[in-house]
Amino acid sequence: MFELKDHDELTSPVLIAAFDGWVSAGGAGIATADHLAGDGEPIAVFDPDTLFDYRVNRPTVDFRNGVLSDISWPTITLRRRLIDGRDLLVLSGPEPNWRWQAFSNAVVDLAGRLGVVEHVSIGGIPWAAPHTRPTQVITTASSDDRIDIEADFPEGLLRVPGAVVSVIEYAMADAGYPTLGLWARVPHYVAAVYSPAILAIVERLSRHLGVSIPLGSLVDDSAQQRVELDSAIEDRPEARAMIEQLEALADAADPVVSGEQLAAEIERFLRDTSDGAD
User: Fold this and answer.
1) Which of 164, 200, 234, 259 is most exposed, with the fewest beta carbons within 10 Å of its own?
2) Which phi-psi region, left, alpha or beta, contains residue 147 (left: φ > 0; alpha: ψ -120 to 50)?
3) CB atoms inside a 10 Å sphere around CB 82
4) Distance separating the N- and C-terminal Cα atoms of the chain
5) pLDDT tens for residues 123-169?
6) What is the pTM of this model?
7) Per residue in 191-204, is it b (16+ CB within 10 Å) or e — as a string?
8) How many CA atoms lie within 13 A of 189 on its CB side?
């Protein structure tokens, strides 16, 4: 299912996974993956014919002066980036249309070949959160002892529609790898890539891995996006009222979110998205 390229010896590699899809709200999954990978070279590439329905994830076709010159297929890659003496292996791309179990088993196989020591899933959860407050990151893990006592995590049973990134995390944990999931709460009214969510995940991941991941322009991008969102609601009383209500809810909220509350937010987002698509 994948082609593994020649590579140098890896140092304490951590596998970080993110895919396009509903669990990448605000680009918090796929855009964060691109930031983490930087200019890292792919060391493994998955065969798109085994994973994609091209009527859903269509290839891009280029014509130059009327001549068909190139076809770009949807691709899932594993990119390597060395930071502070530790290898980050970033698995990302469009979410596959089928064969999720075979795909996750292939990822476990790949992790074994590369000597991976830990798995981290990243993404964004659509949430009734105001952009005027710091972005919160929800934590999931393969065991209770991997969740910090001060972490924001779903309390009780959480049952939501699955994403391939969670299937991979489950398979990795089942194979004995320690896993962690970092999910930024993204304001449900933000349709664009949400820079504060990317910044929050990168900072949280840096602390967890004990490496200094370069922030690049994330701090400035986040500040600029705050200005743009503030400006967008300035002359809209109904939008300002909504933000004030969300601020009140955020300020009064328990840091530990219930599984039922999180599931309700996700179901509402998926229902609204489906209605909009119709």
Assistant:
1) 234
2) beta
3) 14
4) 34
5) 999 888 899 999 999 888 877 777 665 566 666 666 777 899 999 99
6) 0.86
7) eebbbbbbbbbbbb
8) 14
